[in-house]
Design a protein that fits this description.
mainly beta; 41% strand; 2 domains; 141 residues
Length: 141
């Protein structure tokens, strides 16, 4: 599904991918905040079309541009047994090894809810010995 949002002019190029990190304090009183902050925090998006309309912005030096984006599947680690299904009630892996290369995929900034499993990428080497699989998940429509 294509969504309309605003991104900084430097990012507004077809094919660019970004992760929406949420609304900043600087944006709280902006009249355009509902269009800029209409994406899901922690999810990756891809710019599929750049429109001609732009606006000035106190956060982005060159202003913001209206773009069409599509949400990309999230890459996460789940328990090996859960990867056998077509959907998963996603919960982050309980782990405090923040320096582990897999930490971001084990505790991503996404909502805990049910997702469909789009693709099983493969096994994860876990320093704690957990049996994990790396998968792509997306919202159930």
């Amino acid at each position: 599904m294509v969504l309309i949002t605003l991104v900084g002019k430097k990012l507004a190029q077809e094919g660019n991918e970004f992760v929406y990190l949420g609304i900043t304090q600087k944006c709280k009183n902006c009249r355009l905040k509902t269009v800029c902050s209409n994406l899901q925090e922690g999810r990756a998006y891809k710019v599929v079309k750049v429109r001609d309309k732009s606006h000035s912005c106190s956060l982005h030096e060159e202003g913001v541009v209206v773009v069409e984006v599509e949400k990309l599947p999230a890459e996460v680690n789940i328990k090996e047994k859960e990867a056998e299904a077509t959907a998963v009630a996603y919960r982050p892996i309980k782990c405090n090894k923040v320096l582990c290369k897999e930490h971001e995929a084990c505790v991503p900034n996404i909502k805990e809810k049910e997702y469909k499993i789009v693709e099983v990428i493969g096994d994860v080497e876990c320093p704690k010995g957990y049996k994990l699989k790396k998968v792509l998940i997306d919202d159930i429509k």
